[in-house]
UniProtKB/TrEMBL annotation, chain A:
Key words, A-Z: Cell inner membrane, Cell membrane, Electron transport, Heme, Iron, Membrane, Metal-binding, Transmembrane, Transmembrane helix, Transport, Tricarboxylic acid cycle
InterPro entries: SQR/QFR_C/D (IPR034804), Succ_DH_anchor (IPR014312), SuccDH_FuR_B_TM-su (IPR000701)
Known cofactor(s): heme
Topology within the bilayer: Multi-pass membrane protein
Keyword Cytoplasm: no
Membrane-spanning parts: 21-39, 59-84, 96-116
Record-given protein name: Succinate dehydrogenase hydrophobic membrane anchor subunit
Taxonomic source organism: Microbulbifer bruguierae
UniProt-annotated location(s): Cell inner membrane
Function: Membrane-anchoring subunit of succinate dehydrogenase (SDH).
Amino acid sequence: MVKAVTGFGRSGLYDWFIQRVSAVVLVAYTLFIVGFIFLSKDFSYASWSALFEQRWVRVFSLVALISTIAHAWIGLWSVITDYLTNRMMGGKATVLRILVEVLLGAVAVFYAVWGIEILWGV
Amino acid sequence: MLKVSIYRYNPDTDSAPYMQDYELDTEGKDLMVLDVLELLKAQDPSLAFRRSCREGVCGSDGMNISGKNGLACVKPISEAAPKGKLVLRPLPGLPVIRDLVVDMEQFYTQYKKIEPYLQNSSPAPAIERLQSPEEREKLDGLYECILCACCSTACPSFWWNPDKFIGPAGLLQAYRFLADSRDTATDERLSNLDDPFSVFRCHGIQNCVNVCPKGLNPTRAIGHIRNMLITRAV
């Protein structure tokens, strides 16, 4: 058993599961938005803002935003723990990895707050 | 004439590895790569490589043959060097001891982690633990592994994290014991694998399947392990 405290859920199975669930949510949301843009007859500011007036669309958008953050964290965490390893770079890899993780975390929080502001602020 | 290019490195005399070219008259025969190495070693006794059974059973002569991992003893030059040029390198990712000989320690450490032996907490029967033909069948495609390391050293996830990711060879064996009806340690075995590295660094690219000289499928075994983990957790 390898210890990993900075993974999304600390269990490989949990991360794997969230990665799949969030991918399905993102596919559904992408189809929904792209479908709305291209299939609605009078696509305009009015129809767009009417769409986001509805609570379920806001909730769906928030779920998609959270899915993006979870999906990105799990994926990018895999990438940095593949390439920024102490085995390859020595002790500085730990510092570098923590820096990248803090940066990713900051971006995630920023997007989450900003997204909520946009969705419920209009 | 067969052209052969071989990775050479002797840490006592060389500051860096280099490729050395040889030429060999194969007399029109479709030799195995190991035969080529033996003939070249007669010319140049400093050439170092591992070998034992010379028939694909012991797994000693795993190496990178013209870009693809395989066993030198069962790989004919007609396949490995169709254009008359053979390139031999050590298995990728593992530390080189000398020439084509690699240090397998990291590979064995991962193998050891999966506790590759039968564990059964029930009292031992008088003669033996019986299996039905169907239960025995589940081990087909798993027990045949000879631990040559061709698969694990073809896997990028193993290259990046050989200290954390079990690798295809170890995971194939992990499933061999998970699937065994005589083994009762299933839950402990699964608990030991449920971290983000041991199993889940496998992204299913199937390099392992592509190179396995015994035609085994570690990716499928890893999928089975994942399904067992999901089944007990959902």
